[in-house]
């Protein structure tokens, strides 16, 4: 081989190595990360100290926390974490009907979120949300006339409330707390006994029934329920009202679903709206906006019931043996399309 050939050969080798490296990195990013994510299930969630005793609350009858030994079924403060199999849906249904409850379901659909998500959210809620109970939907939007007409079952109503369109999506999201507080202090608060507040970019895929009711209800975040406390994405910057001390925090809750009695939700929304105002005045914004403030509130005032990630699952994670029947599925995030 001449010197020229050797040099050529060396360059070719570098060239192919670079191609392989690029493809490898791309492959890892595209396919490797979900695999890494699946390893999470081997991180223990902890065990419920009460698992040998039946838990109960006013809504779910007797719970069987031992029925799901592979997951955490209660919190350290004694609240049940509702997983498929630990409750009897028929008992929950009967108790809710006896109490003659009206359940509110609030959802915001501002800007492009309305066309993209609202119809499917409402249609699937008709099939799965608190079926057999009285339900009143509250849709908050800046364009009431664009709200799709969805055929409603008996005992189910839909009301539309007009809101202003904020300029930034972060502000639309955060403004929900103040607006919900106003609604809970008005007609919604008079009409409903219990209320769930949800994101619109998801749809129901299984029964979301009265087993989810309690004085205050928080949703475990599908991405974070196996993570150790120190890695959870709480706001840690002490300048924000949402800040939690570095070594503190229970679970990371998802703001796409929270609920409770009207009185409890009035306290929750008042706290969050006030904290958001305070941050704005100081020129800071919490890492995950209203969700950070919600997490601070539930850290100060522990929820009476926690919903397992089965209640609000992300198909992007893929299926897991411990997720029996997802009740809500996130829509794929199409931020480029809906955020402006
Ligand atoms: N939202 C809206 N219009 C917007 C931004 C937000 O209607 O421009 C509402 C909508 O209900 C949405 C929720 O606020 O589901 C939270 O925003 P998003 O779902 O984008 O936040 P993420 O779930 O990605 O944290
Ligand atoms: Mn969302």
UniProtKB/TrEMBL annotation:
InterPro entries cross-referenced by the UniProt entry: Glyco_trans_6, Nucleotide-diphossugar_trans
Manner of cofactor binding, per the entry note: Binds 1 Mn(2+) ion per subunit.
Reported cofactor(s): Mn(2+)
Residues holding an alpha-L-fucosyl-(1->2)-beta-D-galactosyl derivative: 221, 291
Residues annotated for UDP-N-acetyl-alpha-D-galactosamine binding in this entry: 108-110, 113, 199-201
UniProt-annotated location(s): Membrane
Regions that span the bilayer: 14-36
Active site as annotated: 291
Gene Ontology terms describing biological process: carbohydrate metabolic process
This protein's UniProt keywords: Glycosyltransferase, Manganese, Membrane, Metal-binding, Signal-anchor, Transferase, Transmembrane, Transmembrane helix
GO terms for cellular component: Golgi apparatus; membrane; vesicle
Record flagged with keyword Manganese: yes
Binding site for Mn(2+): 199, 201
Membrane protein topology class: Single-pass type II membrane protein
Molecular function in Gene Ontology: hexosyltransferase activity; metal ion binding
Assigned protein family: Belongs to the glycosyltransferase 6 family.
Protein name: Alpha-1,3-galactosyltransferase 2
Organism: Orycteropus afer afer
Gene field: A3GALT2
């Amino acid at each position: 081989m001449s010197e020229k050939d050797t040099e050529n050969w060396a360059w070719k080798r570098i060239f192919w190595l670079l191609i392989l490296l690029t493809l490898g990195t791309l492959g890892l990013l595209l396919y490797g990360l979900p695999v890494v994510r699946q390893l999470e299930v081997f991180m223990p969630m902890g065990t419920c100290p009460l698992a040998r005793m039946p838990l109960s609350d006013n809504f779910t009858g007797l719970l069987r926390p031992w029925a799901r030994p592979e997951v955490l079924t209660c919190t350290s403060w004694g609240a049940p974490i509702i997983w498929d199999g630990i409750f009897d849906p028929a008992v929950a249904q009967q108790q809710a009907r006896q109490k003659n409850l009206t359940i509110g379901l609030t959802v915001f659909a501002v800007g492009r979120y309305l066309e993209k998500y609202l119809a499917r959210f409402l249609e699937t809620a008709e099939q799965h949300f608190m079926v057999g109970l009285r339900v009143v939907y509250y849709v908050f939007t800046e364009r009431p006339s664009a709200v799709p007409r969805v055929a409603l079952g008996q005992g189910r109503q839909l009301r539309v409330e007009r809101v202003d369109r904020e300029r930034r999506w972060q502000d639309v999201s955060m403004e929900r707390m103040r607006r919900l507080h106003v609604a809970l202090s008005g007609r919604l608060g008079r009409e409903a006994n219990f209320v769930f507040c949800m994101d619109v970019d998801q749809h129901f895929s299984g029964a979301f029934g009265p087993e989810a009711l309690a004085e205050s209800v928080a949703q475990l975040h599908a991405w974070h329920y196996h993570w150790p406390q120190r890695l959870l994405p709480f706001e840690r910057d002490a300048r924000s009202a949402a800040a939690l001390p570095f070594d503190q925090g229970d679970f990371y809750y998802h703001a796409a679903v929270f609920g409770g009695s009207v009185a409890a939700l009035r306290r929750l929304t008042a706290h969050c709206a006030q904290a958001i105002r305070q941050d704005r005045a100081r020129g800071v914004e919490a890492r995950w906006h209203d969700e950070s403030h919600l997490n601070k509130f539930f850290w100060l005032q522990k929820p009476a019931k926690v919903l397992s990630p089965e209640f609000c699952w992300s198909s992007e994670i893929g299926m897991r043996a411990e997720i029996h029947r997802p009740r809500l599925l996130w829509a794929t995030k199409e931020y480029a399309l809906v955020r402006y």
